[in-house]
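README, section 4: Worked example with a bound small molecule

Sections 1 through 3 covered apo chains. Here we extend the same pipeline to holo records, where the ligand is supplied as SMILES alongside the sequence. The molecule in this example is copper (II) ion. Nothing else about the input changes; the structure line simply encodes the ligand pose together with the chain.
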Amino acid sequence: MTGNIRKNHTAFTDRERERFLNAVFELQTTRSSRPHPNNVGGTVYGDFVAMHIEATWSGPAHGTSNFLPWHRQFLVEFEIALNQTSAAQRGPRVCLPYWDWTVDRQPDRTPWTDEWLGDDGTGLLGQVQRGRFGVPDNDLEHFLSPQTMARLRAADGISGLPPEEMAAVWQELDRRLADLPGELRNRWFVIRVVDNRPFLSRFFDLPLAPFLPFWERETEEQKQRRREREGEFFRDRGMGVLDVMDETAYDKFRPRLELDQHGTVHAELGGHMGGSGSPNDPVFWLHHCFVDKIWADWQAKQAARHPVAAPYLPLQGTETEPGYHQRFAPWNTMSAADLIDTARIRHPQHGRVGYVYR
Ligand SMILES: [Cu+2]
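The generated complex, written as structure tokens:
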């Protein structure tokens, strides 16, 4: 019925991986014809970040039944955009990869490699430095004055500076960013709506509230503890166990999947993944693709066990949650019912975009 197969990223060939990453990078460096009002960088990719930020500020996309259908459509829309890039033009349709964090849950294992998504944030500004989306520490020389560089080195990075000095470094970065030649500017693509980090930031395994920039919250003691724990990434947080699969009702399954599993992964990765601008980190797509797969697997499992169980609740909309047949914002083109069978999804403009998981 459909030839579109979403696979584990570890099953990608080199060529498949390159086409996917090239397409993502192309969206990050292509100007949007009609940028979303919150899209500071003005790229096609930035429109997706802005859309997610807005959906986090208001609306039912998080914390309600709509969480799973909303993100399913978000992924479908992103996959369509990937396939409109020149990187995707020749060859089969580009399908999103997923990251199974119940299996690959060590900070030094895939997808945290140079070939895939780069590593944890490091360096004087705590940025991701490796892989396609990283910015090496020595690029800072293009942005910061020799005095500032010397100050950062002496303080062993920005987290060693007092708050006023931190603020001054960010201001200097912001000013210099605007003057960069395009090729360099394109490497510093992050949409700065929720914070002022112009580069991709990760901060693995920080067990604190995820919404503040890390340098405001990590003490020396915490830093030490984090380094000791890095080998245990995810291990003691239940990431290896998918016991949500045993829930028999959607309105029990969805909150546990969203908060306990999906939310923990966001928080554990930290940096951009810890905030509403999370799609800035390309791992967002791999993470949400796996969450979407869990929903699909759960449907199949529950359908086999209870043929009459509803795949989505509530059937009738409430004040806070769209019903099964109710179209939802910002697209207003599909309802949960239109998205429930992944193989049969029909996009109003793009036709058959259905897929199956393998
Ligand atoms: Cu989200």
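What to look for in the output: The mean pLDDT is 84. The chain has two domains: 1-117+220-269+281-357, 120-206.

Section 5 describes how to batch many such records.
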